[in-house]
Specification:
The protein is mostly beta strands and about 100 residues long. The protein is about 5% helix and about 50% strand. Strands 1, 2, 3, 4, 5, 6 and 9 form a seven-stranded antiparallel β-sheet that branches.
């Protein structure tokens, strides 16, 4: 996951739909923060070999941090997402491929 103020981070996806997702992480993100999330949908969900997805959106809800492990639930509403092609690479949070196609929500 990338934000303009934070380096790439790993997070656990708790829920996902076509309009957004909920993640569990230790980042102190505020409502309104833009995020870019790269994820891989499992073959069991998609019915085909996994592809990497790039999802861009904004934080719309943040829970209080869990005092035991400092993680919180963060809800993100997608504004844009795209399925990355096999020849697309993600390098340091940057997409490398001029022939990408996307879908606007």
């Amino acid at each position: 996951m990338d934000t303009s103020q934070a380096p790439s981070q790993r997070a656990e996806t708790a829920d996902i739909s076509k309009s957004g997702l909920r993640i569990i992480c230790d980042l102190p993100l505020a409502i309104g923060t833009p995020v870019e999330i790269f994820l891989r949908m499992p073959e069991e969900v998609m019915g085909e070999p996994p592809h990497e997805w790039c999802c861009r959106g904004r934080v719309v809800r943040v829970s209080e941090a869990d005092p035991q492990n400092a993680t919180r639930a963060i809800a993100v509403k997608f504004h844009y997402y795209e399925v990355l092609h096999k020849d697309t690479e993600v390098v340091g949070g940057t997409l490398i491929d001029a022939a990408q196609r996307g879908r606007r929500l």
